[in-house]
Predict the structure.
Amino acid sequence: MSIRRQMFLALAGASAAVIIQSGPAIAAPPTGTPAVRAPDGPVITEIPVDSSEVATFGPESVGKPIPNSYVGLTRAQLVPHGIQGEQRHFTPDPEQWDNARTIVEVILRRDMPAYAAVIALSTALQESLLRNLTEAVDHDSLGVFQQRPSAGWGTPEQLTDPRYATERFLDALLVHAPDYQAMPLWQAAQAAQRSGFPTAYARWQEQAAQMVSRLLGPRQGPVRRAASGQAMLGCC
């Protein structure tokens, strides 16, 4: 190979190197807080659930930490009055996990205790098996809690929004059973729902406690928070 040919190749290689390196360097995210993108949502940041801090929710408080009250979640917090009666169990499918996750996110955002999440999930399991009922199955009952528009719970469109339905259930719980933490689960649920079968809520207590533990407990992975301030839970 001639000297001229060697010089030409060397210059071409140097030019290519300049072109390749001309873009800005991309730094790796800090350890423990990797930025990822949800399939159809905003950039989210993962925060270890066993951290002493988690992000608050709402655009007015983005980035401000609050104590993570669910660190070290115990069975006594989930079932403070024990398991009552025969229990039912099943393996939830993705839709049921999505609805459970939405319910628990509302409890988390309202900073209510884990027992409130178990009460809410037990109620939704009994009423709809965690399905969002968009067609009335009992009179005009709709949604995950079978709430009735004619009873003043909300419009059909509102009650088939699991987040809204959960908010209304919790509102009723706090109004009719403000001391729910001192009550057996079925009594607390019945105070809000006024069902014809009040003790039936108890049959789902163990299933609900297991699901809440997976969604809020330290073994399910990190709690994720969207850039918009919306809470997102891992698991399942």
Notes: Strands lie at 35-37, 43-47, 53-55, 65-67, 223-226, 231-232. The chain is about 40% helix and 10% strand. Confidence is low (pLDDT under 50) at residues 10-67, 219-230. Residues 173 and 228 are 29 Å apart (CA to CA).
